[in-house]
Amino acid sequence: MKHQSQGLTRREFLAAVGAGAAAAAAGRPAHGAAPADRPPNVIFIFADDLGYADLGCFGSKTISTPNIDRMAAEGMKLTDFHTASPVCTPTRSALMTGCYPKRLGLHVHVLFPQSKTGLNPDEITVAEVLKAQGYATACIGKWHMGHHAIFLPTRQGFDSYYGIPYSNDMGIVAEGMTFAKDARFNFGKTLEAARTDPYERDKPPLMRGEEVIEWPADQATLTERYTDEALKFIRANKDRPFFLYLPHTFPHVPLFASERFKGKSRGGLLGDTVECIDWSCGEILKAVKELGLDERTLVIFTSDNGPAGHPAPPLRGGKGTTWEGGQRVPFIARWPGRIPAGAQCGGLSSVMDVLPTLARLAGGKAPADRIIDGKDIWPLISGQPGAKTPHEAFYHYSAYGVMSGVRCGKWKCHTRTPLMRPAKGAPADQPFAPALYDLEADIGEQNDLAAQHPDVVKRLAEMAENFDKNLTATSRPVGRIG
Ligand SMILES: [Ca+2]
Description:
By secondary structure, this protein is α/β, with parallel strands linked by helices. It has helices at residues 10-25, 66-73, 88-97, 101-104, 126-131, 191-196, 222-236, 268-290, 324-327, 354-361, 378-381, 454-473; strands at residues 41-47, 76-78, 81-82, 117-118, 136-140, 160-163, 178-185, 206-208, 211-215, 242-247, 297-303, 331-334, 343-345, 349-350, 394-397, 403-408, 411-414, 435-438, 479-480.
């Protein structure tokens, strides 16, 4: 069913911006600080469950990431960058659309192989915005915004797709999936077995386009295979603007590393997978340089939420929580000549800002027929003097989509439990005494100042409830099959 929007329909939007695409591809100057000759290539590398302290350049002592560290030394680090949720699906949908997940109906935890919902095809993704500007687009890696055909990357603005459709700890439910004629069935399973096999954990399918080509995916070699695909895409599109979205499968558990990386890191198997991702970044940066695209290519590295099962010092908490460790993630952007080297910026920003920022750099526009929560943060990323966050506030929703707190300036107020679920036995809506932290003085959220600043708590709690009420009233329908 088509979603009724107040302004342009999605089709009209694509037609309107499509008119500018040929011009952009032909070298029309872009707006603002975008490059004069043609819009930049964009490579967006998205780790899964990589925490704030899992990179050398963000303080890891055990995981060696020389390539990502060099990327930071040659570019900008954002130190106050947040995901839109402490779990996968909501954050990814926020990245794709520039919106809070609740606005999209994808705020309640993650999708599973049995799910019949996904990112509504009527949403306008960042890939569609860039495609309309003449970009070649590819998604290589973990999607997790719906595995039924109508939700796949190929229906959301990507020219091609290669990867696993959901998390690597999930199995297969063949319903809604198409198998390639020459699909590989590992572990001796037949196509019939794959179709009828009940849900099994840790056995995701590998897809190309809209077909399963391998089941279960050989996870140990996934990162390297993604990298091969990425390099092919970059080389094939070196003469036109391209957008490569590379959402890695790791370090989400279960962890697998190839023989080449297994046992090599001082950070254990987790470190092995992150060091493989670092190698992958190195290969990509090398290819970009060899093709003479360094000064035409914006490369971004970040993560979809905090670490699962290990700490993110100096932050408190991790994946699944609205403590800082759950949603504050490393963010690095490199674009020689456009982004200063070795820079760092503490402006508040989030994954929802990616779409408006890339739209501007591509000479396009964020969709204007619907509410977009993100803002253009190019002034922060490009290190413009005196650049400040465009956000008055950032709102925290729990892993199950419940309004849980607000960040405003230095203050962070937890209005509900920061944990994934309330304590065992407690009702879901248990009363929670708000907690208040001064993140400038206390990034580790150790000293609750609620009792000293009841006025601040009251103001922020009201802001949070009002925002949620408004967001709920203006949310759009989730995508559903059938
Ligand atoms: Ca994740």
